[in-house]
Amino acid sequence: MYGIKSYWEKEYGSPPYGHAEESSLSSFSQRMGIDIEQAMILLKEKNIRVDAASQTLLEISRTNGISPKAIYETIKPKRSTANAKISSLGRRTLEELSNINKINLEKSLKYLKQKGFHASPQTKMKEAANALDMTPYGLFDKLKVLQ
User: Fold this and answer.
1) Residues 97 and 139 in one domain
2) How far apart are CA 28 and CA 63, in angstroms?
3) Range of the domain at 127
4) Is residue 6 domain-resident?
């Protein structure tokens, strides 16, 4: 069966989370771990018109005749090959990431506590990211710089 979701993903790609295109640029950036000021600069450099960070990705895409995915591709942080995606990141525990020298466990636990989430070494990235209204990769980007 070829449903709407299959069509959408074929045409526009999978969104980073459900109904991401309905999020304001501000909340999307926060959830994805993207600095909003940097996002606005990158969009301006690509001549993508944004009137306010409160506009949804869908509104911005319609105004500019591009897909919401193109907006995300423009503002997402560029990952170096040294920091390539870790498989199954959402299912990894903080301790696992620490053991493979990707994050500092002590500093990560402290950061999460400061953000209002009390984590343990056995906390899975998806659980911590959801508590902070982020994706696991957005949270990982924040934690890896705490080394």
Assistant:
1) yes
2) 18
3) 82-144
4) no
Beta bridge partners of residue 56, listed in sequence order: 24
List the one residue out of 107, 146, 135, 105 whose CA is nearest residue 123. 105
**Two tokens at 19?**
């109904």
Q: Nearest Cα to 65, choosing from 90, 81, 46?
A: 46
Residue type present at position 87: S
Residues 69 and 30 in one domain: yes
Residue 103 lies in a domain: yes
Residue type, 41: I
Please indicate, yes or no, whether residues 69 and 98 belong to a single structural domain of this protein: no
pLDDT tens, per residue, the chain with 147 residues: 444 444 445 445 667 778 889 999 999 988 888 888 889 989 999 999 999 999 999 999 999 999 998 999 899 876 544 445 677 888 999 999 988 888 999 999 999 999 999 999 999 999 999 999 888 988 998 898 887
Which tokens belong to 122?
A: 């056995």
**Is there a domain that residue 10 lies in?**
no
Same domain, 110 and 130: yes
For residues 40 and 13, the answer to whether their CB atoms sit within 8 Å is: no
